Amino acid sequence: MKIYDFTGAPNPRRVRVFLAEKGINNVPFEQVNIATADNRKPEFLKINPMGGLPVLELDDETHIAESVAICRYFEDIKPEPPLMGVDAKDKAVVEMWNRRMEFEVLSMAAGSFRNTSDFFKGRIPQVKEYGEVCKNAVIKRLEWLDTVLADREFIAGPRYTIADITALIGIDFGRTTQIRIQENQKNLARWHQAVSSRPSAKV
After folding, report:
1. pLDDT tens series, the chain, 203 aa
2. pTM for this entry
3. Residue by residue, what is the 3-state secondary structure of 44-105?
4. Long-range contacts: 150-154, Cβ < 8 Å, 24+?
5. In order of start, what are the domains of the chain with their CATH numbers?
């Protein structure tokens, strides 16, 4: 078993934080350099035709791409501590909040970066105006998220979950295009300080 990884990208970090929270530290990582387009070379496209990272390779040579799918695999083989819910209702609530954080924060932050950064210039089609739309969407969602966190410790309720991991990754990645928690967003800043202080956030 191993994970194809790239330390500079947000979705691979999401898996690394998840594994750190689970206390799973025996899975090796193999770096695939996105900056030099190694993930677009034929040998890697045999592993993941979509070219994305991370990818979990099992001992039977099964390849599981998409970060949440990889997290689901490890949640099932090591249920404690639970990061994706504990019963039907809780799992649904955590899934709801994780998807919100994925679609409204992480994906929008990534969209801002992809469409405005020189990193992708000449590599993918870029629409600068859409990048600005994405950036503004994240800024609005962070305003909303600050109000959500006024009466709870974590994104999905009283317990740290994958929704917190996704939100952390999205907010941190937002810095690449100057998306920041604002001074008046006290609840969001409190939450971000707490989750950033966890040892898993350092991976």
Report:
1. 999 999 999 999 999 999 999 999 999 999 999 999 999 999 999 999 999 999 999 999 999 999 999 999 999 999 999 999 999 999 999 999 999 999 999 999 999 999 999 998 888 899 999 999 999 999 999 999 999 999 999 999 999 999 999 999 999 999 999 999 999 999 999 999 999 999 999 99
2. 0.96
3. HHCCCCCCCCCEEECCCCCEEECHHHHHHHHHHHCCCCCCCCCCHHHHHHHHHHHHHHHHHH
4. 150/187, 153/191, 153/194, 154/191, 154/195
5. 2-77 (3.40.30.10), 88-202 (1.20.1050.10)
